[in-house]
Amino acid sequence: MSHVSVLLHESVDALLRSSGTIFVDATLGGGGHTAEILSRRKDIKLYAFDLDEERLAEARTRFAVEIADGRLILIHGNYGDIRERLKEVGVNAVDGILIDAGVSSFQIDQAERGFSFAKNGPLDMRMDQSQPFSAYNLVNEWPQEDLEKIFFKYGEERFSRKIAGRIVERRSSEPIADTATLSNIIRGAVPRDPKGIHPATRVFQAIRIVVNKELESIEKVLQEIPSLLNPGGVFAAISFHSLEDRPIKERLKFLTAACICPPTIMTCPRCNKPEGELVQRKPIIPTDEEISQNPRARSAKLRVFLKNT
Ligand SMILES: C[S@@+](CC[C@H](N)C(=O)[O-])C[C@H]1O[C@@H](n2cnc3c(N)ncnc32)[C@H](O)[C@@H]1O
Fold this sequence. Notes:
Blueprint: H1 8-15, E1 22-25, H2 32-40, E2 45-50, H3 53-62, H4 64-68, E3 72-76, H5 82-88, E4 94-100, H6 105-109, H7 135-141, H8 144-155, H9 160-171, H10 179-189, H11 201-211, H12 214-223, E5 229-239, H13 242-256, E6 276-278, H14 288-293, E7 301-307
Parallel strand pairs: 1-2, 1-4, 2-3, 4-5
Antiparallel strand pairs: 5-7, 6-7
Helix pairs in contact: 1-2, 8-9, 8-11, 9-10, 12-13
Bound molecules: S-adenosylmethionine.
């Protein structure tokens, strides 16, 4: 899989609409966005978060100069805790926040991280390897009804009941310990669709979302917008599926609405006072050329919020 950062120029252009000097890359990953931001603006401080220690370790080497100069500060933490984590380093407000949600191609490519059904590895899927709860715990310990529920809710998997049943049947004889075993169980539970996506795609997505509390983190960071932004600040978020995009879209709609009153209420303190505006109503999406170079970009959507000055 390619390690090209998705919507790189569009998202960094959006972020740097702010002329402020304190920015956050909430999802460092392979450092593509961080490198682009640092190369375009020499006068800023960039705080880069990741849950994954391996990504931070790579960045310590790659960006040694910027770190030594004090232009880049790495934070091992969840962007859901952005306010507290920034406060710990003396920052109470920022001029821009970029989120490039989800899993990185580096994580998927490393079989030993257990994100991939295409390469066998331990059933893990933790972005943060210091967290005790992994895909192994979920698959081997959760009740059948809960498995069924999350496969349906976070994977939109039509055969969730059957798959959950097969998992419980198998784990009663021995634990399900690797991604190939899980993938084979799923393959055996769903009808063949030669033209469709790999049958394990949806269930793996659901497990990953739950193990890493991905949607909770997005919800939490969205609640910090706009109060964490300075006037004129920017929030730019790239999402890869509708479960991630929906809460972003809803929150930004709320923040930019002129009136949030239910029709029955006569007066509202927020009327005609939106917190900011959207750069454009429809999300920014990758060009056909970007998609052909990087298939992961296919479903990407960038939404950008500008806080009032
Ligand atoms: C899509 S990748 C980012 C790629 C990056 N923008 C680049 O240019 O290489 C997402 C990264 O965010 C991290 N991540 C995901 N959820 C996170 C969270 N809630 N808090 C902090 N980091 C998170 C993942 O570990 C992964 O490394």
